[in-house]
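Dear support,

I submitted the protein below through the web form. The confirmation email said the job was done, but the results page showed an empty box. After a refresh the structure appeared. I'm attaching both so you can tell me whether what I see now is the final result or a partial one.
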Amino acid sequence: MPTNNIISREQAEAIIREQVVPTIFQDAPKKSALMSLARKLPNMTSNQTRVRVLDLLPMAYWVNGDTGYKQTSEQAWANVYLNAAELAVIVPIPEAVLDDAEFDIIGEVTPRVNEAIAQRVDAAAIFGNNRPAEWSSDIVTRARQAGNNVAVGNKDWYDIIMSEGGAFDKVEELGYAVTGAIASMGMKAKLRGLRTQDGLPIYNTAMQGATSYGLDGNPLYFLDNGAFDKDVAQLIVGDFSQAVYSIRQDITIKILDQGVIQDPATKEIVYNLAQQDMIALRVVFRMGWALPNPATRLNGDRTGCPFAYIEPSTPVTTQTVTFTVTDGENAIANATVDVSGAILKTDASGQAVFNLRSGDYSVAIKAKGYKGVTDNITVDKAAITKDITLVAST
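What the results page shows now:
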């Protein structure tokens, strides 16, 4: 009689209870840096919100003698608009999968969709990547037009960030105070590598407890939601209180069990929810943002920017866009050229030169004594010249 007859694991596999750990190992969802640092305005009550900003400052003049004439001055305001753009996604889920799943699938998907929204907001508002047409130019583009881009070259990183001509100085020269900074994850190593002439580390962190990063007393955030574009910038500093955002529609979630889902490109039906026993998780979010950039005594013409950034070793490719403003015969100097929020003044020859990455931009041109003109430009892979003729106002 054989003595080695046993019930093997293979034979009892069908009835062996498996231990299922009641959690899913995953990283914590990431938040939006812009919405954490910028100033939140009251929620939008319509698709567009107007913010009035100071556009022209009054001047004071010395009076010449006891009987001298006192001069007049003016003050003006301009409108800056927050336009709501929509972010949305639909996640189809077969009902059979929902029934058989050991976890709350909807509860797991929702925070990840929220994270994706945060990533899209930061990428568009800070770097201009996939920027919706309703939004103005991103922070990096605005800083670039103001000359607030800092090249790396052969300079020390401490000088690039802190010293004269560095990123902080670019912001402070315009009368703003840096309130925060955001950087790529790789910036940590660069900062830790800073040394004095004696070889001592300049950028110190505590060896015990949680580490909070900062620059010159201001919080430093390492953007970890996937939005930071290292091909565009390495570090961005600025007065984040100058950036504002407003929510038109908070994140809303709706579960659909009827209807069809079409391919956006081909318009072909991809899923028929009722016929295929499926549900769809629809998430919608709408918000607008702006960088009003009001006139200050150090930025009276509003051509400055409260942000600066450090370029990568190889700066991103831009194209020159040259506007020449005339009255049909003569150049108009000191005309305001506004390209999606970035403002420059024309020189004596009536020209204003922008350096723009590929994309679509709105243009508004005005000059005192003339009717304003609006236009649109598309920047691709070549320089653009644009002649603008203004007509005198009656």
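Response: this is the final, complete result; the empty box was a page-load delay. The longest strand covers residues 244-256.
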